[in-house]
Amino acid sequence: MSTRRHLLGAFAAAFATLAALPTAAQSEIQIQHPWARPTVAGQAAGGGFLTLRGAAVADRLLGGSAPSVAERVELHTMRMEGDVMRMREVPAIDVPAGQTVKLEPGGLHVMFMGLKAPLKEGERFALTLRFEKAGEKTVEVQVSMRPPAGASAMPAGGHGAHKH
Ligand SMILES: [Cu+2]
Fold this sequence. Notes:
Layout: H1 2-20, H2 24-27, E1 30-36, E2 45-53, E3 59-65, E4 70-81, E5 84-89, E6 93-95, E7 100-103, E8 109-115, E9 124-131, E10 135-143
Parallel strand pairs: 1-10
Antiparallel strand pairs: 1-2, 2-7, 2-8, 3-6, 3-9, 4-5, 4-8, 9-10
The structure holds copper (II) ion.
């Protein structure tokens, strides 16, 4: 009698574990629409932007590297102080489970420090991001004056699924 009860308990625990497993689509952090603004000659640093889609578990972006264009990569935030926009380095960017975090002009961004040459419109370069849990992930950054389709904070329309 008591053995049977224990067995049922074990089965119930096994099923609960299976149900809690994330699906393949949710299990990895996604990096979408990476882009960077062109820079002019003599400009020492440039901003980069992208959208992070959280995995089933919370993660943190800790830093990155883009050795083909910059000496180092920093994580920055931007905020108004009086009527001046100021940038400040942050040690990490939280990516909560299942949440979308946008790095975009005027807010959080990656900063390419010590540019080896100006970033030119139309150019592409590799950016490796380092996450606490997901490890290193490399994406291709597009240099462009304007955000790529889908990266804008305000969708241009045509997506019926957007609700406000
Ligand atoms: Cu910055």
